[in-house]
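seq:
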Amino acid sequence: MDLRISGAGVDPLGLQRSIGQAERPGTAPTTRAGGFAGSLDAALQSVSRLQSESTSLQQQFQLGAENVSLERTMIAMQQSQVAFQAAMTVRNRLVSAYTDIMNMPV
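struct:
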């Protein structure tokens, strides 16, 4: 499944940093292409794109555009809903894993 959002460069969880790499004070965190962070970003971008397409098709259908059918609009709505639910499930599991790790005794 491919999930995406707009807002390139937004990294609220710091997922772009290399794991295990020591950072010196005063230096910017380094980023690496691909990997988990890249996959997550691409997936969230896809969710955003699906939601935008769904909204656009809904508006066009309501305005009576001849090239937009009800079936196509409903399918786009369902695709964006399923993608969003999948993204929320991934987010919830990531937060749960983070909480479990933070609660481990050292």
